[in-house]
Amino acid sequence: MQIVLISGLSGSGKSIAIKVLEDAGYFVVDNLPATLLPQLVATLHGSGYQRVAVAVDVRSGSSIAALPQQLDNLRGIVDDLRFIFLEARDDTLIARFSETRRRHPLAEEGVSLEEAIHRERDALDAISGLGHRIDTSDMHPNTLRTWVKDFIQAEAGGGLTLMFQSFGFKYGIPMDADLVFDVRCLPNPHYDPRLRPLTGRDQPVIEFLEKIPEVGRMAEDIRRFVANWLPSYMRDNRSYLTVAIGCTGGQHRSVYLAEWLAQRFQGSAQVLVRHRSAARRDADRAAHAK
Fold first, then answer.
1. Is 249 annotated as a binding residue?
2. CATH 3.40.50.300 residue window(s) in the chain
3. Which CATH architecture fits 2-153?
4. Does 12 show up as a binding residue in the annotation?
5. How high is the mean pLDDT in each 10-residue block of the chain (290 residues)?
6. Which helix (H) or strand (E) holds 119?
7. Is 13 annotated as contributing to ligand binding?
8. Is 10 annotated as a binding residue?
9. 58 assigned to a ligand binding site
10. Is 170 assigned to a binding site?
11. Is residue 7 part of an annotated ligand binding site?
């Protein structure tokens, strides 16, 4: 039996994640009190359900405090337990609530939207590090859908999943990063008019960067650091380790290095690679083309 738990901040994209799982054939339960999780799993398992997705968040009130213990209990019962925690920056959440005119679940008389967001962040702090965190700030909904699909399609097995994620510093450091490497000191293909519209996955950019000795040294230094410390993270019983590689715009250098590193670690762990800023650029271009 596979169970995917969804939690996170209101406005961070939980409804999108739940819809992805529902479309993928999961039996979905939204807004379940954490204390009822064992009974739900037992009932559905007895009824023959194999894939279940459950949303547990601050709407459940104080029962959210029981979630860490419930997760520990379930790991000894189910074959495959995964946990996604969605979050976003305060300014992003405020903008989303303002656009949709929805009421924050912790909003009450005399409490501003910003205060409600801070209260929710504090209430969920104890569970935010229990699973795979995804920072949806400035993320296009289609990108989040793709990332959730990648998450549920990743091979199960209880080991650590190593995530290499490129990003652009001009958009901010991703909140879900465990390790951050700054590669802005490397020569930038952006200044070559031929390479500017391309990304670090395109062969002309790859060839440009491969000719620069500093790029090779930087790549090898990051590889060596991650390789040296990966066993320690595995012993820490982590399910996910996100290594973020940042350049100015997140289009060339960081994308190239994230892809290069992902190839080097295939076989050492379950590996995923994501391109935060490049995906944002592609989504914006697709929207403008319509």
1. no
2. 2-153
3. 3-Layer(aba) Sandwich (3.40)
4. yes
5. 92 94 94 88 90 89 83 82 93 91 84 92 90 90 89 69 94 92 97 96 97 98 96 84 96 98 90 84 53
6. helix 113-124
7. yes
8. yes
9. yes
10. no
11. no
